[in-house]
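Researcher: Let's do a round of design. I'm pasting the structure tokens now; please hold your answer until I've finished.
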């Protein structure tokens, strides 16, 4: 019913195409199932009963490329800037590796570790290697391996000197910590 990257539930129920940015999030709603013969009602309270894992083809991207695919659609609608930045970075590196002939399992493992750091519902590679049963998320929320913690906000940026002034409002920042700066003009910048 709901397949990440190929969902038609929203189109069927609301004439709003999820694949064109108008998803109504049908797979995240509560439903009541009614037995037509007995009238018995069952409330489906499971937040992820129709929620699929995220579509991820980075581990088969060489095969996708060999099949002649030249354009990739990256799912980023409704996602945080750091998610979009991380996915684009990993896929760009993978495509460049395929072109250079250096794409291998070790790189795939590193890209997957990187992708697992941002919000995700687990990954699967869809039906690209043949028909198989969809894989459903085993829980609601993120499966990210890296936790984001709010530490403060940017107060001022001095463009000539390329220096930013920040106000720390929570937690301590230590040398070596990775920080993520997000904003309407910066997008997502990860620094250490």
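Researcher: That's everything. Go ahead.
Model: Designed sequence:
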């Amino acid at each position: 019913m709901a397949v990440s990257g190929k969902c038609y539930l929203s189109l069927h129920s609301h004439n709003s195409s999820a694949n064109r940015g108008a998803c109504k999030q049908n797979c995240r709603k509560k439903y009541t199932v009614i037995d037509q013969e007995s009238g018995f009602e069952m409330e489906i309270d499971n937040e992820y009963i129709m929620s699929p894992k995220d579509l991820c083809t980075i581990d088969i991207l060489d095969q996708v490329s060999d099949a002649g695919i030249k354009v990739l659609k990256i799912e980023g609608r409704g996602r945080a800037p750091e998610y979009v930045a991380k996915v684009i970075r990993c896929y760009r590196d993978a495509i460049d590796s395929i072109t250079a002939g250096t794409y291998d399992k070790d790189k795939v493992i590193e890209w997957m570790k990187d992708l697992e750091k941002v919000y995700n519902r687990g990954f699967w590679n869809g039906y690209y290697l043949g028909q198989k049963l969809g894989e459903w998320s085993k829980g609601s929320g993120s499966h990210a391996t890296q936790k984001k913690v709010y530490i403060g906000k940017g107060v001022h940026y001095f463009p000539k000197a390329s220096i930013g002034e920040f106000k720390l409002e929570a937690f301590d920042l230590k040398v070596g910590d990775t920080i993520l700066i997000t904003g309407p003009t910066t997008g997502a910048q990860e620094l250490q």
